[in-house]
Amino acid sequence: MSTRGPVATHRSSTGIPAGRLAVWWLLASEIFIFGGLIACFVLFKLNGTPGFEDASETSVVAGAFNTFVLLTSSLTVVLAHAAVERGDREKAFTYIWYTFAAGIVFLMVKVYEYSGKILSGHTITENLFWSFYYTMTGLHALHVIGGMVVMALISFDVRKGYNYQRVELIGLYWHFVDLVWIFLFPLFYIANF
Amino acid sequence: MSEAAAAIHTEDHAEHHEELSFLYKYILPVDHKMIAMQYMFTGLIMAVIGGYFAYVFRMQLAYPGESVPFFGIVGPGEYNMMVTNHGTIMIFWVAMPVLIAAFGNFLIPLMCGCDDMVFPRLNRLSYQIFLVSALVLILSFFVKGGGFGGAWTAYPPLSSVPEFSLTDWGASLWVLAVALEFVSFLLGGINFVTTAMNARAPGMKMLDIPIAVWFIVIAVILFMASVGPLIAGAVMLFMDQRIGTTFFLPSGGGDPLLWEHLFWFFGHPEVYVVLLPTMGIVADIITVFSRKKLFGYRTVLYTAFATGGLSFVVWAHHQFVAGIDPRMANVFVVTTVLISIPIAEMLFSYIATLYGGSIEYTTPMLWALSFLFAFLIGGVTGIYLGASALDVYFHDSYFVLAHFHYTFFPITIIGMFAAITFWFPKMFGRMMNETLGKIHFWGTFIPFNCIFLPLFFLGLAGQHRRIYNYDHFPDLATEELQDIRVFATASLVIMLIFQVIFLYNFFYSMFKGEKAPDNPWKANTLEWTVPSPPPHGNFKTLPTVYRGAYEYSVPGREMDYWPQNMPPDES
Hints:
The structure holds two protein chains of two kinds.
Chain A: H1 7-10, H2 18-46, H3 60-86, H4 89-119, H5 128-160, H6 165-190
Helix pairs in contact in A: 2-6, 3-4, 3-6, 4-5, 5-6
Chain B: H1 3-17, H2 22-27, H3 32-62, H4 76-112, H5 120-140, H6 162-165, H7 168-198, H8 211-242, H9 256-290, H10 297-310, H11 326-354, H12 363-386, H13 388-394, H14 398-428, H15 434-460, H16 479-512
Helix pairs in contact in B: 3-4, 3-5, 3-16, 4-7, 4-8, 4-9, 4-14, 5-7, 7-8, 8-9, 8-10, 9-12, 9-14, 10-11, 11-12, 12-14, 12-15, 14-15, 15-16
């Protein structure tokens, strides 16, 4: 653990390390951002807004494959955390990059889906369903990219042997991104009521 | 510990000994006190802009069509832009940065007895994002078409279609600036909450935390829980403006009412986000200057929790006439009236604190007392507006405007002056001039009432609030009504002139004022145990806390105050 920074950073009146506490608060506020969007989407859907039947046009196979990829990446990030707990920093480094690779696969499938939809005329302005589709999956994809950038940055520190706690923190964040997808997948791919 | 970590450890110590360069001390600081100053001065500069806008549009209302000194002829677009940005600036760029960010930054580490925020660099980043947001807002005034003029509530379709708003880029930059400001406060908020939760001095239990810190933390949590849907909404509005989606446009299947729900789901808790810090500041001031224990510390705290919880279920009282289901309006009437109970209880606790105290009428105390008085008027008129039947008549009239300013002026301006005059000795190490402070107090407080009390009557007389020139409406252009408008505007000008005294006092005292002792007000909280101004790292040895923050005039003790860090066996 690093000893950099003020005393305040290393205090723990709650018994939870400051970094973990802060990530939990970050995720709490993220829940409200995605929650707001999901609530808007569900309300429009329940209202029978025209265009929402287009949910049948999204590819369940692509969505299911991406769900599988993200769930697997959650496993590898846990393995990275477990490795770093054992002090096995080479292994942790490898697992972080496995997670990163899963992110790449996820994004490639997204690009494939987006380009296919746009070419068949389903642009963001076509109707509200597609507006929500691109906004929410796009915001989610930005979170995936953000997580990947942070992972790439911390992996080298971990290999050199410091800031181990960051593996756990990026893991928490990555699980959250995964969890958001677990909500988006049924909303945009499966549910067609 | 590995070698690398050890290397960082020594490097860290080396940093402490060398003098920081100007750039790292004042421009890119990580010290919470300097970041607090940055927030405060940015907020004060924005307050000057917001105040100038108020001056220009009030002059236009009093003397329609005439050239306004220091501005010129006010066009309708300019009028709308100034009204909109007056509201936006005063709430997002004055109330929040000064009350929450500046005093939160300054007070939380000092009052909790630690050397800095938990994440100093995150703290610096939140200020920098905040500064960018302010610059984006100012930039929006100068783009083609001028600044956004669709009111600070930005209801679509007016705000989302350039052909309606006539401010193509002004509207988009406005949304962008507000969204950046939210991001800045989310990051800052995480830091505040984590610091108060985790970095308290040993011995400081939950119920030993000063109310000022508690309330800033509760406010930040309310903000984090309410702003998310509006950030989503801001993204949607921005996309409606820029790429032609129709989230809020009925023509494309969207719903403008959805924006109102997203906005007010944030907008109403936001009232308490800015109210609570001022309430906390006032609690600390009135206990110090009545030399009494805070009446019902736990009650005050629980009423804040109740207010925070209820604030999430009152939002639709802003929308009684917007087309929501009238049966739903009934529910919101009940919750709106309910929320007045905890707030009234809090005010009663403060009044009970004053009862029987040895009250000293210092400048900060005058501000704190005037806050209680003015906010009470704001609260009571709010009960009228909370009843949907009355709101149908009052809605969008000057009654609403006067009610709003009787809550937000005390919160923002009075709260800010109370806090600045109280903590000035700690911030700058010098005392402010009491006589000038009192002149400034009366010169602000009397005109404030003269501006807004008459507006209640204008509202009752039916004056609608979104009219740029009442000459175009013969029923509203009568001589009696116009006289009231002139009176309110004249009071505003007088109030603005008195702010010069404050600025003089502020800057003169900063450099030439009498040197302040460590504890000029004989207060208990930890920030008064360190030198004024506190050095880098705040405490020479980090304190241990033995008791709550409000042990004043404890029977059987010689000293009428009992600092939190004084061991029980000393006296």
